[in-house]
Write a structure and sequence with these properties.
The structure holds two protein chains of two kinds. Helices cover 30% and strands 24% of the residues of chain A. By secondary structure, chain A is α+β, with helices and mostly antiparallel strands. In chain A, strand 17 and strand 18 form a beta hairpin. In chain A, helix 11 packs parallel to helix 19 (729-741), helix 15 packs parallel to helix 16 (527-554) and helix 16 (527-554) packs across helix 17. The model of chain A has no long low-confidence stretch (mean pLDDT 96). Among the domains of chain A are: 18-25 and 461-599, Aldehyde Oxidoreductase, domain 4 (2-Layer Sandwich); 32-126 and 195-245 and 251-284, Aldehyde Oxidoreductase, domain 3 (Alpha-Beta Complex). Chain B is of the alpha+beta class. Chain B has three domains: 3-51, no CATH class; 58-174, Uridine Diphospho-n-acetylenolpyruvylglucosamine Reductase, domain 3 (2-Layer Sandwich), CATH 3.30.465; 180-284, Enolase-like, domain 1 (2-Layer Sandwich). Helices cover 34% and strands 26% of the residues of chain B. Chain B has helices at residues 11-20, 35-42, 58-61, 78-83, 85-90, 92-99, 104-109, 112-117, 124-131, 150-153, 231-237, 247-258, 271-284, and strands at residues 3-7, 25-29, 47-51, 63-66, 69-73, 135-140, 145-149, 154-156, 159-160, 166-174, 180-188, 199-207, 213-221. Chain B has a five-stranded antiparallel β-sheet. In chain B, strands 1-3-2 form a three-stranded parallel β-sheet, covered by helices on one side. A three-stranded antiparallel β-sheet of chain B has the order 11-12-13, sandwiched between helices. In chain B, a hairpin with a 2-residue loop joins strand 8 (154-156) and strand 9 (159-160). The termini of chain B are far apart. The chains are: A alpha+beta, B alpha+beta. Chains A and B meet through helix 20 of A and helix 13 of B.
C-alpha cells in the first residue's frame, strides 16, 4: 500500500471529550440521578471459604428506609460468567472473598450500608485452598460445584485447559546447541481505574423493559449476558454507557453486582444505583491472571531459535471469567513471536478459593513475553551472542506464515528492533562496566499482538449509521464505544478527512444499544481498526449518494468529487455539501442522507488445533529500557523508555503518544511495584497506600518511534495499537535490571527487597568463593 | 462518617471547646490528611471534631525565632516548611523530610502538629524533628503550658503523652551552634511521591570550622514503635572529622544506628529489608 497524502489523518487532534473530562463536566455513572432512585449495597462473605448455615434478613427488612432485600432464595436467575459457573447470589457455600450473599436497596446509601450490617449470616468456616498446585492434588476438595473439570480435563479443579503444538519438537531439540528451562511466577495486579465500578438500573414495570447505565466495554455482549442471567429477552434490555473512567479490560466480564442491581430495581419497581468505594474496587474488580510458567527454549549454534515448550498453571480463582481464555493470546506469542520452528503449549486454569481473575490490557501477553524475552537473554548469554543480534536474526518478517497460521502481510518487527537498539544507545550501555552505588543497565523486549481485531466471537464486526442533515452536520452513529482510548476522535478525523466537514459539525453517538448498530465491543486493540473500516464503508455509500446528486445538479458527468471545507469540488465546479443534502431531501428522490454499513474483518476462526489467521493484521513492537539500580536501597529507577511500534500508520499522533505513555506506566508498575497481597484468600492491601501504582513522578520519558508499514487491511493502513505498549515493558525492564546487576529475576514485581536480597546472596556467594579459593590455595 | 464539628478561631475558644467536651469523644482536626482516612475506617459513633484549621493565633500557625530556638506552630504545614528559606538552609533534614511528604496537595494541608500527634513511627517530619532534638510546647484547657522533648512525647504507635485536656501548640528546635553542618533526610520507599516511609534516616550534624563533629542528632523512622533518637550512634560521631570518616567507621556508625531498629514485617516490607536498608543508608551518608 502506498502512502496517500492526507489532510487530517496523521495530524495531532485533541480528544473530542477532553474538555468535558478535565473541566468536570463529563457525566460518569456516579453522577447519574433518577427520580425516586434507591441506593443498593451488597453483603459479602466474611470468609473466603465456608458453608452458609443460615441467612436472616428480618432486621434489615424492617430497618427504616429499606425498600427491598434479596438473597439467592428470592431470585430466579441463571449462573453467570464465561463457564456459567458463577451464581449471582450465593447459597450453600461461599468460595472467595468477593462472594455476594444478600443485597439491599434503600432510600440512601448510608441506610443501605447500615441495613447490610443487620443481616445475620451463620457460617461453617472451611480451610479453603489458595494454591493452584494444592488444588490439583487428588485429595483436594472440589472448589466450584459447577466446574466440569472432572469430565472434561481429568481433574475436578481444572476450569479450562488449552493444548497447542506445531513443528517437530524432538527434531528441533536435537538441533539445539543451547536449551534453557526456567520457571516464572507472575503476580496478581489490578487495573486501578480512576472511576470505581458503578451501575444504575431502571426496570419499567409497565412495559417490562430494563435500562442499565453501565460502564461495560462490550455493551452488546453485556446485553446478551444480562438477558441470560435474568431470563429476559435481550432486546428488552437497553444499555447506556455514561462516560467511563477507565476500562483496560476490567469491564469485559459482567460481574454479579450488575444483575443484582437490576434485580433490586425489578423487585422494588424503582431505579437503583450501586457504586463501589475504592476499597471495594480493589477487592472486587477483576485482576490480571497470576500464573506459574515453565518455559523451555532452544537455539542452534548460530543463535536461530529451534523450539519452545511451555506449561502454564494459572490461578483461576473460584469462578471462571473471560480471563481463562488468555491462552488464546499467549499461545500466539509462544508460537509466533520471533520465528519458532516448533512449539508445544499447555495451560491449565485451576480453581482455588482466591478471587477470580478477569481480562486486562495485554490479555496474558505481558506474562508470556516476560518469560520468552528472559529466556532469549539467557540463551544469548550462554551462546556468547549479542542480545540485539539474537533477536534480529530471529525476528518476524513480512510474508512470514507462522506455525500457528498467522499471515504477516506487513511486518515492522525488524525496523522496530533496529530503531530502539540505535536510539537507546543499547550497544554502549549494555557493555559498559557496572560500578558504584547506582548501576545502570539496559534491556530489550519485543512483542506481537493482534492489530486487526481478533475473531473469538462469531462476529468481530462493527456497524455504522451516518446521517448528514439539512444543514451539513454529520452524525456518526457507531457500534463501537469510547472508554478513554480516543477512538471517537479518530472516527471524527476520518469523517473530516473523507467528507471535508469541519470538526465542530460532527457528532459521534456511541453510547446506547437501543440506537447504535451492533459491535462486539472494546477489546483486542480493535476499535479504530474495525470501527474505522466500518465508517469508511459507510462514507463510501454516502458519497455515492452525494456524488450522483451533485453531478445531476451541476449537469456534469463525474463520480470523482473532492470534499473540502463543507463543499464538493470537481475541476472548476463547486457546490455546498448542505445544499446537496437538502436537494436529496426536498427534491427528487426525496430521501434522507442516511446510510448504514456493517464491516466484518477478513480474519478467520481458528480451527480445533487453534490454528488460523485470527486477525486482520498484526502489530509488532520493541522496547529498549534503561534503568538505574540503587544498590543501597534496592530501588529501581526507570531512566528512559524507547518504544518503536508497527502501528501500520499513525492516525492521531497525540492520541498514540498517550497510549504509549499509559501502557508503559502500567507495564512499569507490573515490573517493579504492583502486587495484590493475599493471605488465605483475603486482600491485605486494598488501597493506593498499600497497592503501589506508580505516579507521574515515577514516570520516565517515553521516546516513541512509530513504524509505518501501511497494511491494506486497516483504515489508511493502520493497525490496532492500544494494548501493545505495555506488553514488552516488564520484560525489557527485567532484562535491564539483570544487565545492571548481573542477577536474574524470574518473578514480578522486582521489588527493592528482592534486589537487596539478591545482592546480599551474591555477596555471600562471592565470600564463599573466596573462602574456597583460599582453602584450595592452602591445601 | 458521622460527626459534629466545632469550629474555633481563637485560643480561648479552643480551650473552652476542649474543656466543654472532656466527657465526650472528641478529636482535634487541622489538615485532616490522616484523620479523614482514620475516620473512614473506624466508623466511630458520637464523635465531635474540634476544627482548628481556622485558628488565628500566631503561636499556633507561624514560624518564629525566639532566643536560641526556632519555634514552629503546630499548624505550620509541610508546604510552609518547604517554602521557608531559613529551614531550607539551616535545617536541611527538616526541609527534605517535609518535601518528601506525599504530594503537593497533601503538603499544603498536612500540619507539623498533626504529623507529630498522629504518632506514626513512619512520620517523616516527626523523624526529622527527633533528630533535631525538638521540644514540644503543650497547652492545656486551663491555659497552663508544659514542655517535653519530642522523643519522649511519642509513646508508641498512635500514642503520645498528651492527656485529654491538652493540645500541642508548637515545637521548638535549638538553633545551630555552627554554620558547618551536614544535615539530611533519607527516605526509603517504593514510589517517589505519595509514599509512606518503609524506613527513614534523619541526621543533623554540626561541626567546627575544621570539620570536627561537635553535635550530632540521628533518628530512624519506621523501624520501631516510636521514632528512636540514636544516641550511641551520635556519640560515636562526636570528635571525628566529618571529611575523614573511614569505611570501618561508617560500618561502625551503621551498626550503632541498627541497635535502635526493632522493625516488624508488614505488607510494605519485611523486617529483614528494613534492617538491611537502614544499615545501608546509614553507611552511605558519609560516602562521597
Amino acid at each position: 500500500m502506498m502512502k496517500k497524502e492526507l489532510k487530517v489523518i496523521g495530524k495531532s487532534t485533541k480528544k473530542l471529550d477532553g474538555k468535558a473530562r478535565v473541566s468536570g463536566q463529563a457525566v460518569y455513572g456516579h453522577d447519574i440521578e433518577l427520580p425516586n432512585m434507591l441506593h443498593g449495597s451488597i453483603l459479602r462473605t466474611k470468609y473466603p471459604c465456608a458453608e452458609i448455615i443460615s441467612i436472616d434478613t428480618s432486621k434489615a427488612e424492617v430497618f427504616e428506609g429499606v425498600e427491598c432485600v434479596i438473597t439467592a432464595n428470592d431470585i430466579d436467575v441463571n449462573n453467570i460468567s464465561y463457564k456459567r459457573d458463577h451464581p449471582i447470589l450465593k447459597k450453600g457455600t461461599v468460595n472467595c472473598n468477593r462472594d455476594e450473599i444478600a443485597a439491599v436497596a434503600a432510600r440512601n446509601k448510608e441506610i443501605a450500608d447500615k441495613a447490610i450490617q443487620l443481616i445475620e449470616v451463620k457460617y461453617k468456616v472451611k480451610d479453603g485452598i489458595y494454591d493452584p498446585f494444592e488444588a490439583l492434588k487428588d485429595d483436594a476438595p472440589r472448589v466450584n460445584e459447577f466446574g466440569k473439570g472432572a469430565e472434561k480435563f481429568g481433574n475436578k479443579n481444572i476450569a479450562e485447559s488449552f493444548h497447542y503444538e506445531h513443528g517437530d519438537l524432538e527434531g528441533q531439540k536435537a538441533k539445539s546447541k543451547v536449551i534453557i528451562k526456567k520457571s516464572y511466577e507472575l503476580p496478581r495486579v489490578t487495573h486501578a481505574c480512576m472511576a470505581t465500578s458503578n451501575i444504575t438500573a431502571d426496570f419499567n414495570q409497565l412495559d417490562g423493559r430494563l435500562t442499565l447505565w453501565s460502564s461495560t466495554q462490550v455493551p452488546f455482549l453485556y446485553q446478551r449476558d444480562i438477558a441470560h442471567a435474568l431470563k429476559m429477552a435481550p432486546s428488552l434490555i437497553r444499555v447506556i454507557q455514561p462516560i467511563i473512567g477507565g476500562g483496560f479490560g476490567s469491564k469485559l466480564d459482567m460481574h454479579p453486582f450488575e444483575p443484582i442491581c437490576a434485580l433490586l430495581s425489578i423487585k422494588s419497581g424503582k431505579p437503583v444505583q450501586i457504586l463501589f468505594s475504592r476499597e471495594e474496587e480493589f477487592i472486587l474488580s477483576p485482576t490480571r491472571q497470576p500464573m506459574v510458567i515453565e518455559l523451555t527454549t532452544g537455539a542452534d549454534e548460530n543463535g536461530k531459535f529451534t523450539f519452545r515448550e511451555v506449561e502454564i498453571i494459572k490461578d483461576n480463582g473460584a469462578y471462571t471469567s473471560w480471563g481463562a481464555t488468555t491462552p488464546f493470546v499467549m499461545m500466539q506469542t509462544y508460537s509466533s513471536l520471533y520465528q519458532v520452528p516448533a512449539c508445544k503449549f499447555d495451560s491449565h486454569a485451576i480453581y482455588t478459593n482466591n478471587p477470580f481473575a478477569g481480562s486486562f490490557r495485554g490479555y496474558g501477553n505481558p506474562q508470556a513475553t516476560f518469560s520468552i524475552e528472559t529466556n532469549i537473554d539467557l540463551m544469548a548469554e550462554e551462546l556468547g551472542m549479542d542480545k540485539g543480534e539474537i533477536r534480529l536474526i530471529n525476528a518476524n518478517y513480512k510474508g512470514e506464515i507462522t506455525g500457528q497460521g498467522l499471515i504477516y502481510k506487513t511486518c515492522g518487527a525488524i525496523p522496530a528492533l533496529e530503531t530502539v537498539i540505535r536510539k537507546s544507545g543499547f550497544d554502549q550501555i549494555v557493555n559498559e562496566p557496572k560500578t558504584g552505588r547506582y548501576l545502570r543497565g539496559i534491556g530489550l523486549g519485543s512483542m506481537l499482538h493482534v492489530g486487526g481485531g481478533a475473531k473469538i466471537y462469531r462476529s468481530d464486526g462493527c456497524g455504522t449509521i451516518l446521517k448528514l442533515d439539512d444543514y451539513g452536520y454529520l452524525t456518526i452513529v457507531t457500534g463501537s464505544n469510547e472508554i478513554g482510548q480516543g477512538s471517537e476522535t479518530v472516527l471524527a478525523m476520518i469523517a473530516i478527512e473523507e467528507l471535508g466537514i469541519p470538526m465542530d459539525k460532527i457528532k459521534v453517538i456511541n453510547t446506547d444499544t437501543d440506537v447504535k448498530p451492533w459491535d462486539v465491543g472494546v477489546h483486542a486493540s480493535r476499535t479504530s481498526f474495525v470501527a474505522g473500516n466500518s465508517l469508511l464503508g459507510a462514507i463510501k455509500l454516502l458519497k455515492e449518494k452525494l456524488n450522483s446528486k451533485a453531478s445531476e445538479l451541476l449537469d456534469i458527468e463525474t463520480e470523482n468529487w473532492d470534499y473540502m471545507d463543507g463543499k464538493m469540488y470537481f475541476g472548476e465546479f463547486e457546490i455546498n455539501l448542505d445544499k446537496v443534502a437538502r436537494e436529496i431531501h426536498f427534491g427528487p428522490p426525496h430521501e434522507l442522507c442516511t446510510v448504514s454499513y456493517f464491516y466484518e474483518p477478513p480474519s478467520s476462526f481458528q480451527d480445533k488445533e487453534y490454528k488460523g489467521d485470527v486477525s486482520g493484521n498484526y502489530a509488532f513492537a520493541s522496547q529498549a529500557i534503561e534503568v538505574e539500580v540503587d544498590t543501597v536501597t534496592g530501588n529501581i529507577n526507570v531512566l528512559s523508555v524507547h518504544v518503536s511500534q508497527d502501528v501500520g500508520r499513525v492516525l492521531n499522533p497525540i492520541g498514540l503518544q498517550g497510549q504509549m505513555e499509559g501502557g508503559v506506566a502500567t507495564g512499569a508498575g507490573y515490573a517493579l511495584t504492583e502486587e495484590m497481597i493475599y493471605e488465605k484468600g483475603m486482600l491485605k492491601n486494598p488501597s493506593f497506600h498499600g497497592y503501589k501504582l506508580l505516579t507521574t513522578t515515577d514516570m520516565p520519558p517515553v521516546h516513541f518511534y512509530p513504524i509505518e508499514t501501511y497494511d491494506e487491511a486497516g483504515p489508511y493502513g493502520s493497525k490496532g495499537a492500544g494494548e501493545a505498549p505495555l506488553i514488552p515493558t516488564a520484560a525489557a525492564i527485567a532484562n535491564a535490571v539483570s544487565n545492571a546487576l548481573g542477577v536474574r529475576f524470574y518473578s514480578l514485581p522486582i521489588t527493592a527487597e528482592k534486589v537487596l536480597k539478591a545482592l546480599s546472596e551474591k555477596k555471600n556467594e562471592l565470600k564463599l568463593e573466596r573462602v574456597y579459593f583460599k582453602m584450595s590455595v592452602e591445601t | 462518617m458521622d460527626f459534629d464539628v466545632i469550629n474555633v478561631t481563637t485560643t480561648d475558644e479552643l480551650c473552652s471547646a476542649i474543656a466543654g467536651n472532656l466527657n465526650n469523644n472528641f478529636r482535634i482536626g487541622a489538615g485532616y490528611t490522616d484523620l479523614i482516612l482514620e475516620l473512614k475506617q473506624a466508623r466511630v459513633q458520637d464523635l465531635t471534631i474540634i476544627n482548628i484549621a481556622q485558628l488565628e493565633d500566631p503561636s499556633f500557625n507561624s514560624i518564629i525565632e525566639k532566643g536560641d530556638h526556632i519555634i514552629l506552630g503546630a499548624l505550620v504545614t509541610a508546604s510552609d516548611l518547604v517554602d521557608n528559606k531559613k529551614i531550607k538552609e539551616e535545617y536541611p533534614v527538616l526541609y527534605e523530610s517535609a518535601l518528601s511528604v506525599a504530594s503537593t496537595q497533601i503538603r499544603n494541608s498536612a500540619t507539623v502538629g498533626g504529623n507529630i500527634c498522629n504518632a506514626s513511627p513512619a512520620a517523616d517530619m516527626s523523624a526529622a524533628l527527633v533528630a533535631l532534638q525538638a521540644i514540644c510546647n503543650i497547652l492545656d484547657s486551663d491555659g497552663r503550658e508544659r514542655n517535653e522533648p519530642l522523643v519522649s512525647f511519642i509513646k508508641g504507635v498512635r500514642k503520645t503523652s498528651l492527656v485529654k485536656n491538652e493540645i500541642l501548640k508548637s515545637i521548638s528546635i535549638p538553633k545551630n551552634s555552627s554554620s558547618h553542618i551536614k544535615s539530611g533526610f533519607e527516605k526509603v520507599g517504593t514510589r517517589k511521591s505519595m509514599e509512606i516511609s518503609i524506613v527513614s534516616l534523619s541526621y543533623h550534624i554540626q561541626c567546627s570550622s575544621e570539620g570536627t563533629i561537635e553535635k550530632a542528632g540521628v533518628s530512624c523512622g519506621a523501624v520501631a514503635t516510636t521514632i528512636p533518637f540514636a544516641s550511641s550512634a551520635c556519640n560515636f560521631l562526636i570528635g571525628k572529622n566529618i571529611d575523614a570518616i573511614s569505611e570501618i567507621e561508617r560500618i561502625g556508625f551503621a551498626k550503632k544506628v541498627l541497635e535502635y531498629a526493632i522493625p516488624i514485617s508488614d505488607i510494605r516490607a519485611s523486617a529483614w529489608y528494613r534492617k538491611e536498608v537502614l544499615f545501608n543508608i546509614s553507611k552511605s551518608i558519609f560516602e562521597s
